[in-house]
Specification:
The complex is a heterodimer of chains A (about 850) and B (about 525).
Chain A lengths: L11 E2 L6 H9 L5 E6 L2 H15 L5 E3 L4 H6 L2 H15 L3 E6 L1 H5 L4 H11 L6 E5 L8 H15 L10 E5 L4 H14 L3 E4 L24 H6 L5 E5 L9 H9 L3 E3 L6 H13 L6 H21 L3 E5 L2 H13 L3 E6 L7 H9 L13 E3 L4 H10 L4 E5 L3 H7 L3 E5 L15 H33 L27 E4 L8 E3 L23 H14 L3 E6 L9 H14 L4 E6 L4 H11 L1 E7 L5 H7 E6 L2 E4 H21 L3 E8 L8 H11 L3 E6 L16 H11 L17 E3 L2 E2 L16 E7 L5 E2 L8 E8 L2 E9 L10 H14 L5 E4 L4 H9 L3 E4 L2 E2 H15 L1
Parallel strand pairs in A: 2-3, 2-4, 4-5, 6-7, 6-8, 8-9, 10-11, 10-13, 11-12, 13-14, 15-17, 17-18, 18-19, 19-22, 22-23, 26-30, 30-31
Antiparallel strand pairs in A: 15-24, 16-20, 20-21, 24-25, 26-28, 27-32, 28-29
Chain B lengths: L3 H6 L4 H8 L2 E3 L26 H10 L5 E6 L2 H6 L21 E2 L4 H6 L2 H15 L3 E6 L1 H6 L3 H12 L2 E5 L9 H15 L13 E7 L5 H12 L2 E7 L4 H4 L7 E4 L2 H15 L2 E4 L5 H15 L2 H29 L3 E6 L3 H11 L3 E7 L4 H5 L11 H4 L19 H7 L20 E4 L3 H11 L3 E4 L1 H9 L3 E4 L11 H17 L9 H4 L9
Parallel strand pairs in B: 2-3, 2-4, 4-5, 6-7, 6-8, 8-9, 10-11, 10-13, 11-12, 13-14
Antiparallel strand pairs in B: 1-12
The chains are: A alpha/beta (about 850), B alpha/beta (about 525).
């Protein structure tokens, strides 16, 4: 059961897409002797030149009609005409591409009519004018690219005299890949026209003389001949038909076409080679050997590729193609996202991932989405445990924040050189990419595996990740960078064993936010229900904290039970708790084995005489100690406990309440001592003089004083600057406490109602069977608060490994019929397609490995929290 | 022999020639005054390097503010292309650092048809929920101005609703003739809504703001390091590694130091009118320039201890770089350079080049005004054209409660003319006879001047970088320093010289002539 990601709809945070003119200009760069003018304000041309130049490491000349306010009001024809005239005068191009921008389209410029008038008034003009409609708000660079290609196909006067050539139409592939494609065609003996051909224009050579009009590209004459070609291969399966040049050539001139995927997976490379072969091409011995070498390499690296959990992002064709490559190699494409709006995307990509479900436990754990931005991609990457990013250089910010390697292989790449030389296509190109992917993982393993293996197997710290990457700090309090991950504080620990002079725990003020405050006390069961409820509604819930309102260790049974219950259901969530440390030596071992990763200890003094002014009493092993004795016991136990936690790799934060006149000058000493114990971070908090507390008359510590103290202590111990002094029942991100939304507990099911559960069980005791292997479901019934076994129902076994799709879907229909009265199916594992089929019928899926009764109980709780 | 200017101009059609000849000046030190046409429309289709109004407002002035959530209201492209493009660096104290982010309302076709205000409101709500910024800056793009979204009303609503600072900037790309219009619009918004809203008192009477320092490659940090070493309290930096929270207190400073006057002189002037703060033109790019600026700043405060401290720091800093300075000077001396930056910087870097014996033969500007070329004194003679009038010029009144001028009038009068107090020199009077100054240098002219002037080094931006390299000329980007920097102050100067030297002496440059060019090829037939 995966969480939904926050539904951001109006705000795009860190876009994973560019605008239409960008795509249009890129495509026109593949036309011989073509100069482009963008009709709009000059910023568009300047921005796009900058972005293309940085990626391709080439001069990019794009002119602008430089519309100003006058042109915007009175129409831009004058500017456009001047612009084209000047371009022709200075460059003498064969083709002038005129692409529109947001501005031109919004003011409703009739560019085709303007160009017609221009042709009339310039009868001697040599250049061919091509008009591309490309408002930035009508699509992304992906659509802009194909619009320009379509415009070329439509507007160049056709020469439909049969010429025996094959048209090859591509999306935005790199110049190096374009060169590969040309070499392939010539090797196979196919006489082809490539639209566009960016091989030279966007990856030029160093010559004795620089020529500003680039010499490569497909010529006008060749574009004209496309109408007389015998076949078109369009290497894109996502471009809309209305902008497909292949479609146009068929409709207008009867040129048949084939659409193929980008040749990245072996299957898709073979498909291209086969298509060319069926068009009369020769499969050379060299090509066969190249394929063989690729296969050989796939086996060489497959054992490492199984470690890959990648996030792939970019244009739809690219993501689809790379997903195919990963899937073929047993690497998991955990996150597949495109910035474009692309309706068929999810289904097509899912079909690529599906084969992995045959042998990959994680195959159900994949997110595929279109219309996404990097904010979401980052959240997905963190949530789905991604260990590698594949896409454009724009992923670098995600890479930096999540500390993940990024394989840069798509436009734009701004932070590395060589964007123009990226290879992804064909046997050798795909192999280059595959090697980069494998090596990115291997580098991580090489750097960390000794340490990780030691942690995991020798020291038995189960939390160690074996991905080859440092675990990402997801806890919002321990890293300012993780501020966006949400946490829930479960108020299950009401008791306390010391009395601090600043604390009164009896108050509940829903608007007040400070430690020790809560609106309700939950039992461990309630806490689990609340957790499930919140998790269903908050996407990025990554941390469960127990912060009182008392001390998390004072009644440890409650704390332990809460953690245990939640851990059974959620394997990934982080646990943290805060304590005064008095009982830490007793429970440190248990905290470690429960999987608590973050502990906050409030240490206000490391000198008992100062401590005595802050703590009026400590209750320890049934005896009440006052004054310095109490403070000394507390301190000794804090030190012993922290030492134990740190040794086990648990991150310890120290909270210190700054009380003016009492411990304010003592704080650096506290921080120094804590640093010495191995604490990660210190948090100096202001005293809030609560009415009714012993310190009610003291001054509140102000922000300047806190800032000064933090500054002083920063060199001693890393300081937390983003503390919000949360309530004991806070929910949400640090900056956005939404606990008030969750104050009522989930409602139990109406009495008398019956709920049925279908369970996959081999043993009859545990939920221990894969859905696909189930021959009979055990049906359990929940009624009036109790759960009992009802009956067994036989079903055809869904997975036998021999059936084709039709047989499988027939079986699924039978299974659905059998369990149609059940609310939920419980299995150990389940593939995506049965999962979706069940959900489509309104039947929930709960995957677990547990005693049947317990599992049904959990599923019931989950169902209730859903309602 | 034809001079370089004529050789370049002759390629143009009559109409373009007429326009461009006014923008290109060959410096003549004998002439009484030399005029240049500037801040006027670019010729369409001529491959200008200029950006748009939005780029000046969002990209240059607002972009480096780390704690402001700058929200682009428009289609996706504009936001995407201005995402971290100047490689500004920032360090946030409270975790609110939005420098790495790009926020856009990503307008779609229906929004253009039915209006985008609703989406803007919703985007702000989402931004508040996810990022809880203390301030939001809304920047509009071309279509927004045309469809009539009232971003200012939305900003006012936002302030009421969430209790934060929210300022809207109508910086549609088509306004004005270059980025310069956007600088002005950004200045107006910051002056109106941000500066003067705080009240934190400076720590020292030597309190200054650093205006027009955008922290490219860490320049601002090097400058601030030196200022702090001497004992200045830098209240706010506009806007490199800048913070809205600091800007609120900028009016508490006793002096404004103005680095890039082109982009920020509006605020300097308005702060003088409103709060009585004098401003001093400085230039911390170049060793000698830095020394002059430090001495003039000390002179302004007039305190002997401060002057002594200034000299001590200068001596210490010079000692630290002495060896490197001498080495790189020996490597660079005698070379020639061309510069092509924005408004003030083609002037600033000449000082830095001079430090190492490099002479600037060509200075191009993207968006300078006449005063940048000819000196501040020409401002009264500049005629406003229709494009400039479209950019709002706001007037501010004296703030009677907070107006305070550090220096008494007689002391100020003594300093005018002695130091660059509220004045700056133009670039033309600062170059030598025969040097070329170009306004809105375009792609074609760049190539043409390369041929005629043959500079060894061309310091410019990404759009020229590859043209230059293909032409066999060493380039260095001054908009991002090619991932290097800082180039300001003392340590920055030798860093710059190091980078130039490494560029010029890279052995690869020696390989560009293929061997078969030098040796006669076998031509002929056998038989």
């Amino acid at each position: 059961m995966k969480k939904e990601i926050s539904p951001i709809v109006s705000l795009n945070v860190n876009p994973c897409k560019m605008c239409m003119p960008m795509g249009s200009v890129n495509a026109l760069c593949g036309v011989a002797g073509c100069m482009t003018v963008l009709h709009g304000s000059q910023g568009c041309a300047t921005y796009i030149r900058r972005h293309m130049a940085t990626h391709y490491n080439e001069p990019i000349d794009i002119a602008s009609s430089s519309l100003t306010e006058e042109g915007t009001v009175f129409g831009g024809e004058k500017n456009l005409i001047k612009g084209i005239e000047n371009l022709i005068k200075l460059y003498d191009p064969d083709v002038v591409g005129v692409s529109t921008t947001c501005l031109a389209e919004t003011i409703g410029e009739d560019v085709p009519a303007m160009l017609a008038r221009f042709r009339e008034s310039h009868p001697d003009m040599r250049a061919k004018l091509i008009n591309v409609t490309s408002a930035g708000y009508s699509g992304t660079q992906f659509e802009g690219f194909f619009r320009a290609l379509r415009a070329l196909a439509e507007q160049v006067e056709p020469n439909n005299c049969p010429n025996g050539k094959v048209n090859i139409i591509t999306g935005q592939i790199s110049p190096a890949d374009t060169r590969w494609l040309k070499d392939l065609l010539s090797e196979m003996g196919i006489d082809a026209i490539l639209l566009p051909d960016v091989s030279e224009n966007l990856d030029g050579t160093h010559e004795a003389e620089y020529n500003r009009l680039k010499s490569g590209g497909v010529t006008l004459a060749e574009i004209a001949q496309m109408a007389g070609a015998r076949h078109t291969i369009e290497i894109s399966t996502f471009a809309a038909e209305e902008y497909s040049p292949a479609r146009y050539l068929l409709d207008a001139f009867g040129v048949p076409f084939t659409r193929l995927n980008l040749p990245v997976s072996l299957r898709d490379i073979d498909a291209l080679i086969n298509a060319l072969k069926s068009l009369g091409g020769t499969v050379t011995e060299r090509l066969r050997r190249e394929r063989g070498r690729y296969l050989d390499a796939m086996f060489d690296s497959h054992k490492y590729n199984a470690k890959v959990r990648a996030a792939v992002f970019g244009e739809p064709d690219f993501v689809y193609a790379v997903t195919g490559l990963l899937a073929e190699n047993g690497a998991m494409p955990s996150v597949c996202a495109t910035g474009s709006v692309c309706p068929g995307f999810a289904d097509k990509v899912r079909a690529e991932v599906e084969p992995l479900s045959e042998f990959h436990l994680d195959a159900g754990n994949v997110i595929i989405a279109d219309d996404e931005d990097f904010e979401h991609i980052e959240q997905y990457a963190a949530e789905y445990g991604v260990n590698l990013l594949i896409g454009s250089g724009d992923g670098r910010r995600v890479a930096e924040r999540l500390k993940l390697p990024l394989v840069r292989c798509a436009f734009p790449i701004h932070d590395h050189i060589g964007g123009q030389r990226v290879r992804t296509l064909g046997y050798d190109g795909a192999l280059t990419l595959l090697d980069r992917v494998t090596n990115a993982i291997l580098s991580g393993v090489e750097e960390t595996f000794r340490e990780n293996l030691y942690e995991k197997y020798y020291k038995g710290n189960s939390d160690t990740k074996v991905t080859g990457n440092k675990p990402v700090e997801k806890h919002p309090c321990f890293s300012g960078c993780a501020k966006s991950s949400a946490r829930i504080h479960l108020p299950v620990a009401p008791k306390c064993n010391i009395q601090c002079n600043y604390c009164v725990r009896k108050f509940d003020c829903p608007n007040e936010s400070r430690p020790g405050v809560t609106s309700e006390i939950l039992t461990p069961r309630d806490a689990l229900a609340k957790f499930l409820d919140v998790r269903a509604q908050i996407p990025n819930l990554g941390v469960v904290g127990i912060a009182g309102p008392g001390d998390a260790l004072a009644d440890f049974d409650l704390t332990r039970e809460t953690i245990r219950l939640i851990r059974q259901i959620d394997k990934d969530v982080l646990f943290c708790l805060s304590t005064n440390g008095l009982l830490l030596p007793f429970y440190a071992e248990e905290l470690i084995s429960l999987g608590v990763t973050h502990v906050t200890v409030t240490v206000n003094a490391v000198n008992p005489s100062i401590g005595a002014k802050i703590y009026s009493r400590a209750e320890y092993l049934g005896v009440k100690y006052n004054g310095e004795t109490g403070a000394a016991i507390l301190l000794a136990n804090q030190i012993a406990g922290i030492t134990r936690l740190v040794a086990a790799g648990i991150k310890v934060k120290v909270n210190t309440v700054m009380i003016k006149g009492i411990n304010d000058r003592h704080i650096p000493e506290v921080m120094g001592a804590m640093k010495g114990l191995g604490c990660e971070i210190g948090n100096i908090m202001p005293l809030i003089p609560v009415v009714g507390s012993a310190f009610e008359a003291l001054d509140m510590t102000n922000a300047h004083e806190i800032a000064a103290a933090r500054k002083e202590c920063e060199p001693i111990l890393t300081q937390m600057y983003h503390c919000r002094q949360c309530r004991a029942d806070a929910i949400g991100t640090l900056d956005n406490d939404i606990s008030f939304k969750f104050r009522n507990a989930p409602q139990p099911a109406a009495s008398g109602a019956t709920t049925l559960f279908a369970v996959s069980s081999e043993s009859g005791v545990l939920v221990d069977q894969h859905f696909g292997h189930t021959k009979a479901f055990c049906i359990y019934e929940y009624k009036n608060g109790s759960i009992r076994f009802k009956e067994n129902r036989k079903v055809p076994q869904y997975c036998t490994g021999e059936d084709d799709d039709a047989v499988q879907s027939g079986k699924m229909a039978a299974i659905l019929k059998t369990v149609e009265d059940c609310a939920c199916v419980l299995s150990m594992r389940m593939g995506d397609s049965p999962r979706n089929a069940l959900r489509a019928k309104g039947i929930q899926v709960y995957t677990t490995y547990n005693r049947i009764e317990d599992a049904v109980n959990e599923a019931l709780t989950a169902l209730q929290s859903r309602r | 022999m034809k001079n370089a200017r004529d050789a370049v101009l002759e390629k143009y059609s009559a109409k373009v020639y007429k326009n461009r000849k006014e923008h290109i000046v060959e410096v003549d030190r004998e002439a009484a005054e030399q005029k240049i046409a500037a801040n006027s429309r670019s010729v369409p289709g001529i491959m200008t390097n200029r950006g748009c109004c939005y780029a000046g407002c969002k990209g240059v002035v607002l972009g480096p503010l780390k704690d402001a959530l700058v929200l682009t209201h428009g289609p996706i492209g504009c936001g995407f292309y201005s995402w971290g493009t100047r490689r500004n660096k920032a360090k946030a104290e409270d975790g609110r650092n939005f420098i790495q982010y790009c926020f856009s309302t990503d307008l779609q076709e229906p929004d253009i048809v039915f209006g985008g205000e609703k989406k803007l409101r919703q985007a702000i709500k989402e931004a508040m929920e996810i990022f809880s910024p203390k301030s939001i800056m809304i920047c509009s793009t071309c279509p927004v101005g045309l469809i009539g979204d009232d971003i200012h009303a939305v900003a006012a609503e936002t302030e009421k609703l969430y209790g934060i600072t929210c300022v809207a900037f109508s910086c549609e790309g088509y306004k004005g003739v270059s980025q310069s219009a956007g600088h002005h619009i950004a200045n107006n918004g910051i002056m109106r809504r941000v500066i003067g809203t705080g009240d934190a008192a400076p720590k020292s009477k030597y309190s200054v703001n650093l205006l027009g320092e955008y922290n490219i490659g860490g320049d601002g940090w090097e400058t601030e390091r030196i200022l702090k070493r001497i004992g200045y309290d830098v209240i706010a930096v506009l806007t490199g590694d800048g913070s809205i929270e600091d800007l609120k207190n900028a009016h508490m400073a006793n002096l404004n130091l103005v680095q890039c006057h082109r982009s920020i002189n509006y605020i300097a002037e308005m702060m003088k009118t409103r709060f009585g703060i004098n401003w001093l033109k400085v230039n911390f790019v170049g060793i000698e320039a830095t020394i002059t600026s430090l001495r003039e700043t000390a002179e302004f405060f007039g305190d002997d201890e401060l002057k002594r401290r200034t000299e001590a720091v200068i001596a210490d800093e010079l000692a630290e770089i002495a060896e490197q300075r001498a080495y790189y000077k020996s490597k660079l001396s005698g070379k020639t350079a061309a510069l092509y930056v924005g408004g003030s910087r083609s002037h600033h870097y000449q000082y830095l080049l001079r430090d190492f014996g490099v002479k600037t033969v060509l200075a191009g500007h993207e968006f300078a005004h006449r005063d940048d070329y000819e000196g501040r004194c020409v401002i009264p003679t500049i005629k406003e054209d229709a494009d400039n009038k479209n950019i709002e010029s706001i007037t501010v009144d004296v703030d009677p409660d907070r107006f305070s001028t550090f220096l008494p009038e007689d002391r100020r009068n003594e300093l005018y003319g002695k130091i660059q107090l509220e004045d700056y020199k133009g670039i033309i009077p600062d170059m030598e006879t025969g040097d070329i100054v170009v306004d809105d240098l375009n792609h074609f002219e760049t190539e043409a001047f390369l041929e005629t002037l043959k500079p060894d080094i061309f310091l410019s931006g990404i759009k020229d970088k590859y043209v230059l390299q293909k032409s066999g000329v060493v380039s260095r980007q001054l908009h991002s320093y090619d991932y290097s920097g800082p180039y300001s102050g003392f340590r920055g100067a030798v860093k710059f010289a190091h980078d130039l030297t490494m560029g010029l002496y890279t052995p690869a440059w020696g390989l560009v002539t293929p061997p078969w060019k030098d040796e006669p090829m076998l031509v002929g037939t056998i038989g």
